[in-house]
Amino acid sequence: MALWYFGISSTASTQIKRKKAKIFFFFDMEFAGKFLKPVWRPMMQAARLYCEKPMRSLVAFPVAKVESGKSKYMMAHVYIHGEMGSAKQVIRSLSKAKYHLDVYDELKKEAESMGLCTQGLGGGYLVHDKEKKYIKLYGRSQALGKADHEAAREILQPIYTDHKIDAESGGMEP
């Protein structure tokens, strides 16, 4: 039987602060093997499921939702809380939105329902003509600033492969 000398014993936190802690714990490896073996795998599977759920939500989050006609649009990062490195750039447009922040609020609700966080990158205007298969990105948001229209075009191009997408810089109106 193998015994391991491990652990820290202290009767009061002041002893730890004074570094007068005593090491004491005896651990039987055979007992640990019998105890940990049946519960180790389910514990790891539960941990993996917990860790993978936010990532699955991020992967499943739609990259673009574009309405037809003229609408306000915005770009944003959607990410797992505390993990900005795994952020995903998304585009949302709403024709009924009065302000760009209304578009952001809708996006934020959608992300929070999946347990994700958002950060606005800018806004502009989007004209989507389904019949002509044409999308135009231009302008800026007064509240969020100007979105990178070229980056937005690069995000939309793989989704709307049969559309012609123009990205322009400029003022508030075409």
TrEMBL record:
The keyword Oxidoreductase does not apply. The active site is at H100 (proton acceptor). It comes from the Eukaryota. The keyword NAD does not apply. Keywords: Differentiation, Sexual differentiation. Coiled coil: none annotated. JanA and janB regulate somatic sex differentiation. This is IP08357p. The gene is CG18662.
